[in-house]
Amino acid sequence: MRFKTRVARGYAISSVDITPPSVTVVGPSRYVAPLTSVNTEPFDLKGLTSEANRSVEIVPPDPSLGLSTGHVAAKVNVAEAITDREFRSDVEVKDSDFKYRVEPKQATLTIRGPAVKLAGLAPKGLAYVDANGLAPGSHELPLQVILPDGMQLVRQSPDKVRLRMYHEKLTTNSDEHPS
Hints:
Elements: E1 11-19, E2 25-26, H1 29-32, E3 39-40, E4 51-59, E5 66-67, E6 71-80, E7 82-94, E8 98-103, E9 106-114, H2 115-119, E10 127-130, E11 137-142, E12 144-145, E13 152-157, E14 160-169
Parallel strand pairs: 7-10
Antiparallel strand pairs: 1-6, 2-5, 3-4, 4-6, 7-9, 8-14, 9-13, 10-12, 11-14
């Protein structure tokens, strides 16, 4: 059975059940012997986001051939398409009492999740280090990543960042070191 594969954006076919699962073709052997499948009329999936059941007409491969049935019942299930997407995210510093500089300034994150949700995901605020309680000086800290529900971190680079904390206190968040 052939399908038009235009499902709703961000969705993919997860299963197809055909009843009956096979069709008997009768006719001259020169036409029947080479057959491995028969086609049906198109089963349009445009806009589909869950399950659809339809009776679909079989297209005879040759008018001289007979078919055991003229149609099949098709049940098609559609599920959210899961994909990976790479993001470049600025590394934020949380809970710092002091001015600072972080190196590298950006992280590369590969995230897996539903295609529709990944398309709307903004990279801002995904990667950060926690400076809570850190004194002035140089620190090597693990990069932390926060993701929405249903998303999974596949890969990140770097794993750690260098944070240089200065003796000068922050007065507001806008006083962060611009380096």
